[in-house]
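Hello support,

Our group uses your service weekly, and this is the first time we've seen a run hang past the timeout. The protein is P-type Ca(2+) transporter. I'm not sure whether the cause is the sequence or the server load. Input pasted verbatim:
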Amino acid sequence: MSEEKKVQLSEAFYTQSDEEVLQKFDTTTEGLSAQEAKKRLESYGANALDEGKKKSIVVKFFEQFKDFMIIVLLFAAVISAVFSGDMVDSFIILLVVVLNAIFGVIQEAKAEQAIEALKEMSSPNANIRRDGHVITVKSDELVPGDIVLLEAGDVVPADLRLLEAASLKIEEAALTGESVPVEKEATILEGTASDIGIGDRINMAYSSSNVTYGRGIGVVVGTGMNTEVGKIAGMLANEKETETPLKQNLNQLGKMLTIAILVIAAIMFVVGMMNGRTWIDMLLTSISLAVAAIPEGLPAIVTIILALGTQKMAKKNAIVRKLPAVETLGSTDIICSDKTGTLTLNQMTVEALYTDNEVKPATDAVALDNMALKIMSYTNDTKIAQDGSLIGDPTETALVQFGLDHDFNVTEKVAAEPRVAEIPFDSDRKLMTTVHQLADGKFLVAVKGAPDELLKRCNQALLNGQTPAMDDKQRQEILTTNTKLAKQALRVLGMAYKIVDAVPTEMDSDLVEKDLIFAGLVGMIDPERKEAAEAVKVAKEAGIRPIMITGDHRDTAEAIAARLGIIKEGDDDAVITGAELNELTDEAFAKVVEHYSVYARVSPEHKVRIVKAWQQEGKVVAMTGDGVNDAPALKAADIGIGMGITGTEVSKGASDMVLADDNFSTIIVAVEEGRKVFSNIQKTIQYLLSANLGEVLTLFIATMLAWDTLLPVHLLWINLVTDTFPAIALGVEPAERDVMSHAPRGKKSNFFSGGVLSSVVYQGIVQGGLTLFVYKMAIDFPAHTAANMPNLSATALYDLQHGDALTMAFATLGLIQLFHAFNVKSIYQSVFKVGLFRNKSFNWAILVSFLLLAATILIPGFNDLFSVTSLDGYQWAIVAGTSFAIIPIVEIVKFVQRRMGKS
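Update from on-call engineer: The timeout came from a worker crash unrelated to the input. Re-ran successfully.
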């Protein structure tokens, strides 16, 4: 094929005839020549997926330093080291920033595995016709126009337009989400390309799907990135990762803090210069204020809190691949869930049996001589492995499993009444027949298939052991029952039989499958998970809206959604199909997206479109799924949740979190953990920022009043000791009891929502005010006076008094923060109601921080290092009493807030 005649592989070949397709690809049913195949391989490229561009570790590392607050911190570290010569401060800042960057690189390196997983799904070999001979080639050597032979057990190596299909069934769940293998036909489909979804293209076989039954022949119409799987790979490569609410909030917080700090530092610098202080002195003072104000440990502390959250979630079968996903779950408004394998078991199961004019649930007892039970087990190609597992078509394995569940030992029964002849299933007549030799020398002709086709061949019906002739009333009753079961989204098969004296000489359908006795109907479904309905209920109570997105048929999707409680029974207005969605523009869809809770017969593009439509409404969207078809939507969602057991490596690679047990209810457990994590991060930020505000106000006001209060080393030690340990411990606070009764906070909320900002402001003011109060008290009412220290000079006495005041201010600011840590266990609830000591980690953190703070004053040698003095009992009493005052003050404010209805 010349370059000029190169075929557009995106055409709708399923609407074209065999002759048209073969002509377009300039090929025949005998296949291409080896020489032509070589030319096309050079023209179209290998039948493989593009790997995509990869960032180097160095690039990933330096990308971690783009954050504005990180840049300011690095600048402060350099300035501090150059002008003050104090390397400790600079070293700590640099260490935190570098560790945070390394951790980010490690997380990112683990994230991009989806394309590699897609490549691994490709079939290693394919049977094709070349030069009129059947040969085996590697799948990546296939080219458009090749003729491929398929049989049961094969993985489809490329996108094929089927030319022949003999009882061909292909399992496409990973691509379409449909749990039942699709019966394929070599026919022409009527309609436009947009009207016919992937799941309805019965004359196509798609790359990476699995042949479960029969055989077929097809012409390659799509290879590599031009296959449906390739399109998904392209969507994954081009889909930008959604910035998580956590990252957005941290960036917003960083910018706001940095601007505020720079403004305050500039004002303080100018005022200090106006008061006659040197520029170098004021520069160092301003840097000290910046160090005090910027919570440089916040990124590391948030990372630690998230890491601890991932450990807890892992114990509950939720494996987090990307740390921010822990927190994002807590803000989720919408959970878009794939049906097959997520809300359902992805395992066909018999749910109802109709015999003797009565529908019985599958759990009811069934007599071992029940003819319908015998037929469904006999007319069946399922294999039973040595370990007891069933191998075969999901529908047939469900029938055998039903028999085994009712003590029908199919192996023994078939051994006693062996199969001697058969007519395989055919998609035209929709029936399968087997003939079995009975003990009395006669033969059982057992037939199963589509009820409407089967009834055309029946003239009798089995009723309580009798076989009266079938009249129109009986026939209509069976058809009515079939319709009722089908409306419940059950896949219905009919069973019929007859006894003959000899094996038919010719196994022809018209001769064998006639004059049958109707035995019963069996209804099957891929059932919902038992725990899924409860999980949906809990999600709704938590203000989260569950949305079902599936490639399955509309009726099936609607029935399962109603059984789960996602929609009300009969609420078909809440259901929309992919074809109907195609008729809506993005603008029109945005106006009606809230009307729909169930999406049926959708493609991967639809799933991404649905996720983005909700995101445009300002919602935080979680997407769950297990198939290749879910991967683009998993990546586009705010949080993608893959399935650990049934999930493909592609879906796991595109996910932020993987459910180890494939249990939908685990998502709700994870949501609760996510809400707890966000709440604890809020508490940590409230604690850090109110403490830092207290430090800033202390230093700022003291500078304005020309007071010499805190030294840079004091601020550094307080930040290092009293900030770090309690802040981390607050990150593992138990969840508050009403955490799942609140509506999701959504994207518009931030770390300052829910009263945190006002709490930070007033609590910071109180801390600064109390510290300055103690300093002023120590200066005005010194413990050391000329009366009790007559031998000291005036200068030495002043230095001693100022040293005491400085030490008391330092101790007070540190202790206030430790006492205040108890306050932030809850924004509005009393600390005595939340529980003072139930978090053991917190208790130890407070104790360790107190000992480290006290060590600077009480241990000899540390005094000189920190420029502090030893305090007497009276001074310690003032420090302790004033510091503790933060608890009753905040308790009073909380009480007023509760009375005002803020909580």
